[in-house]
User: Fold this.
Amino acid sequence: MTSTTSTTTEGRFASPVDTDRYGTYRIAQRPDDPRPLYRFTGRLTADGSSGYPAVPGRYHLYAGWFCPWAQRVVLELEVLGLTGPGGAVSVSYVDGSRDGRGWAFRETHGPDPVLGFTLLRDAYEATEPGFDGHVSVPTLWDTVTGRIVSNDFRTLGLDVATQFGDLRHPGVDTYPEAHRAEIEELDTWIGPAVNQGVGRASGEGPAAEQARSELHAAFRRLDARLVDGGFLVGHGLTEADIRLWVTLARYDVQGNATGRLGLPLSSYPNLARYAADLADLPAVRASTRWSAFSAPGAVPSFLPDLPPDPRGEPR
Assistant:
């Protein structure tokens, strides 16, 4: 494996970010490479038919506090009671800064607890020697086969939601069969306009202007949908809320921290109330580290007084 470690006693951490030496991170995939950006697409299955049975203690999720896609999977785990001491899936976090080596393990969030990797790239190299694709979070590692199962955040979230059966908190179902079609229909417009739209809206030119228009049109539509309170679908937190939350959390403090994207979330009273209600849920609080993605001094307009972190960590 090709780590560059610090000179700590146990050599468990990557050396500090050094763009002069390693350059900036780039996705090395060639334009003519037909393989997907998220190359590892294994699936967890309750019956083990995929080769990756959904059993407790076998898998480890590498995540990043800064990353909305990783947070989607972590939040699923928290809501369903699948993480924590003795949980079905363990979780650790990479450092929030990177150079050309990609994401790394540093003192900020502790060492890799599985095999002592210093760079997340080590897990990719162990799975595919000479790996030349995208090193991303979330990444799910299988401790039995010693390889990556998946770095596809969408299918990881769905597998966590549906394949762990009796290991979940009793009565909690974030992807209920009766509402799956509605959840996915919502994603056909919330995904492009909001989850991916914030990034596009941050740019320049006509395409960015169009993205900003579509983003706020989606906010108005969501505000109308939430006029009576509650959740997006049904009577409990579902995958639809999880997908939306990670973008709402970052909107005022990251994408729109300078006001570039337009109105703050508080301009949409029903949507803002919904976001504040979600922010107060224990699983949301446990999976959200505001300081990991907020611009200096920025606070969410819908939650000017951040609640204390349940672990005593900085918000």
Observations:
- The domain at 177-292 is CATH 1.20.1050.10 (Glutathione S-transferase Yfyf (Class Pi); Chain A, domain 2).
